[in-house]
Prior knowledge:
Blueprint: E1 16-25, E2 28-38, E3 43-47, H1 54-61, E4 69-74, E5 84-87, H2 101-106, H3 116-130, H4 145-157, E6 163-167, H5 175-192, E7 195-200, H6 203-209, E8 212-217, E9 220-225, H7 226-229, H8 232-239, E10 243-247, E11 254-258
Amino acid sequence: MTDRSEPSHASGDALFEARDLCIGYGATAVVRDVNLTIHPGDFWFLLGPNGAGKTTLLRTLLGLMPALAGLFWRHPDLGQLYNLGFVPQRCDLNPTLPTTIREFVLLGLVGLHVDADARRARLTWSLDRVGLHDLAHHDYWSLSGGQRQRALLARALVRQPAVLVLDEPTIGLDPAAEVGLLGLLAELNRDERRTLLLVTHDLAIAAQYASHVAFFHDGSVVAGPRRAMLTRANLERIYGLPLDVSIDPANGDLRIHSIGGHP
């Protein structure tokens, strides 16, 4: 994989900027001193334990909750929800309700004013993009775990968003389904320059796919380009484990491994 951790961006093209940002609920701060800039085409991985503030930051970035202090700016176009797509960990439908994949994906257009021709075109494109076009009339609950996650992705993509937010999308997937989903996300990022923000606990996939990483630790965030963040010093400080990072000379991929062990 080519290292994309230091893309060149024209000034002023940021989608989100945070400076000394403090976020939380009510008067209670969850995370302080957040400093980051997200540009078009970035693939951000948000890493940290449960309760560390990853979801809180996403909600703030998406305009669902206000900042407590500091500076925060979001591109005006992202004030329109049609430019945002969200992929949750799991389906939020009642499993007793029969729903075809076609019907499920079209739920992603709720709130948008799209005519019938555009709806059909968006549906076809999103199902093709995730490889589910031939299953459009199958029941959602008949799918495998990996196929369900692709259907969730199609439901977000049908909005044709500029920014795609994914909350631990690989949880519960078998290795083959995980590799397939991550490969698809990498294609969306590389080929269509979609900006992705992905929450995960998995350091290995961040090392392989991220352009940028944000570590959540002890109420603060350390964020920046992948190679600057995934260092032995950062990993030992944040995870308290003897971890190191090496670079595959064949393709430039990063590999995280235990010191004294094998990659």
